[in-house]
Amino acid sequence: MRRSLFISLFAAVPLTSATALDLPARKPGLWEISMVMEGRNVPPRVSQNCIDAATDKVMSSLGSDMRTCSKQDVQKSGGTLTVDSVCKVGDATVTSHSVVTGDFNSAYSVKLTSKREGGPPIPGMTPGAETQMTIQAKWLGACKADQKPGDMIMPNGMKINIVDMQKAAGAGGAPAPKR
User: Fold this and answer.
1) According to the per-residue pLDDT averaged within each range, which of 9-23, 57-71, 76-90, 156-170 is highest?
2) pLDDT reading at 144 higher than 80
3) Top-confidence residue, 15 or 102
4) Number of helices (H) and strands (E), helices first, in the chain?
5) Where are the domains of the chain?
6) pTM (2 decimals)?
7) CA 33/CA 27 separation, integer angstroms
8) Fewest CB atoms within 10 A around its CB: which of 75, 101, 102, 145?
9) How far lies 152's CA from each of 62, 64, 94, 158, in Å?
10) Mean of all residue pLDDT scores within the chain
């Protein structure tokens, strides 16, 4: 369970690491994020994220301390942001190309193409193969009464808080996810 959660959270890392300072801030509130892996017979992974300005920054930089990028080229043309990066993640090298569109107040879309070479095998992924993912995000409104900034409701219904996880990791452990 924890491994699939990590892989889900880490899926968009090549995009966020290159663009943490360049992407506009998302509107505070509840966002629904749908990730679709192209060419795979798996349903979309849909989560809901409750954010404020501080947690949006945390989520944008998620995983940035786990990689070193030799290339981070960010180009903006009108309402489109194009990001090309080459990053070392552990023993693997990830080359990615992302196209980001939308206004970050009501909806945005990310088309991500990446190729991972080296490193340990990842279940369900062919070594050296190109992966394509589409991320669709839409703002749903205010966070629910039982949510606080940083709360993520995962596709399986599990509730985690990314801020609490970071604090626990800094203290040497991670809290158990909430259902």
Assistant:
1) 76-90
2) yes
3) 102
4) 4, 9
5) 2-170
6) 0.77
7) 14
8) 145
9) 13, 19, 26, 8
10) 81
Strand, coil or helix: 64: helix
Burial category of 58 from C-beta neighbours within 10 Å (exposed 0-12, middle 13-18, buried 19 and up): middle
Nearest to 179 by CA among 163, 149, 148, 155: 155
Strands (E), the chain: 29-37, 45-51, 67-77, 80-89, 92-102, 107-118, 130-141, 151-153, 159-161
Q: How far apart are CA 179 and CA 174, in angstroms?
A: 15
Q: What is the DSSP string of 71-96?
A: EEEEEEETTEEEEEEEEEETTEEEEE
Structure tokens at 165: 């996880």
3-state secondary structure of 59: helix
Q: Tell me what pLDDT residue 64 has.
A: 64
